[in-house]
Amino acid sequence: MKLGLSLLVMTFTTSLGWSQETKAQRKIYTTTGGEVILSWADAKDNGADANSVLRFAPFFNFQNQLHLDMHDKLGFFTGLNIRNIGFIYDDPVEVNTRYKLRTYSLGIPFAVKVGTMQGTFVFVGYEIELPLNFKAKTFVNEDKVSKSSDWFSKRTPGLYQSLFVGVQAPYGLQVKFKYYMTNFVDKGYVANDGNGNAIYPYQNFEANVFYISLSFQLFKNASFYYDEILDQSGSNEH
Which residue of 21, 46, 192, 238 is 20 to 30 Å from 207, comparing CA positions? Predict the structure, then answer.
């Protein structure tokens, strides 16, 4: 959380430095699009490396971004995202046992972008996400032996924190790399073994998810040049 707050402070400070000389060029607009995700994880179970298999998630991933362009070369964006994120891994002890974990989450990003705002630019940011639905599947010898799904599950932490960096090409094509700093599951989660005994299935499990995504910002609304309006109203007073 401290890292995210530091990013916000840096973003605000940078915007103040540009504000006096770029008033007439500021504008606000939104973009909407999808995201195709390839994810994996750095996972360990009881200290042993768990082999992570690449996971392909073309849906359901929705992005709505609110952009503020301070200048033709500098801008910021936030927004509201729904994301299907997870990973697949093999049990490091049990042979031919594979697990698939995923969440649907609601995310709010905070990012700074540098480049040509209506062309190609790079961006870097921080995102906080609320896990909505958690699903886990277990496969033995490629046969599914168990499945569970929970809304606002206690198996996940209350919030995920992540960092991302990417590039946007003309016409809204984005390529992004993202790293989740928060462990994917809650180590303190308590389950029942079926005999009334409490167990901690994730107590010694660590997994930090990475992903690479391709997204398309397909729909862009009309830009609102709010500083031009302020300047015009100010000039009317003289």
Answer: 192
Q: What per-residue confidence (pLDDT) applies to 80?
A: 96
The torsion angles phi and psi of 228, rounded to 5 degrees, stand at -65, -40
Rounded-to-integer distance, Cα 228 and Cα 231, Å: 5
Domain ranges (residues) in the chain: 2-200+215-236
CA 96, 213, 164: angle at the middle one, nearest 5?
A: 105
| Model confidence, pTM | 0.82
Contact call for residues 156 and 132 (beta carbons, < 8 A): no
CA distance 111 to 122: 10
Distance CA 16, CA 140 (A): 57
DSSP string, 117-167: TTS-EEEEEEEEEEEEEEEEEEEETTEEEEEEEEET-TTS-S-EEEEEEEE
